[in-house]
Amino acid sequence: MHLSRMLLSATMVSVLALPAWADFNDKKPITATVTGATPSGYPRTMVEGLDAVVRDTYPGSAISFKPNSPGGGVLAIAEGQADFTATATGTEVRLANEGAFPYKTSLKGKFSLAMKLFDVQYIHVFMTKSWADANGIRSWADIAAKKPRMRLAINRPDNPQTTIGGPYEMMKAHGFTIDDIEKWGGSFVLGNSTTGLNAILDDKADVFMNVRNLGDALVKDVASKRELLWIDDDPAKMKQAADAFNFAVGMIPKGTYPFMEKDYPTIRQWVALLASSQTSDETVYKYVKAIAENEDRVQKVGGSLATFKSASMADNPANLPFHPGALRYYKEKGLVK
Question: Is 0.85 topped by the overall pTM?
Answer without folding.
Answer: yes
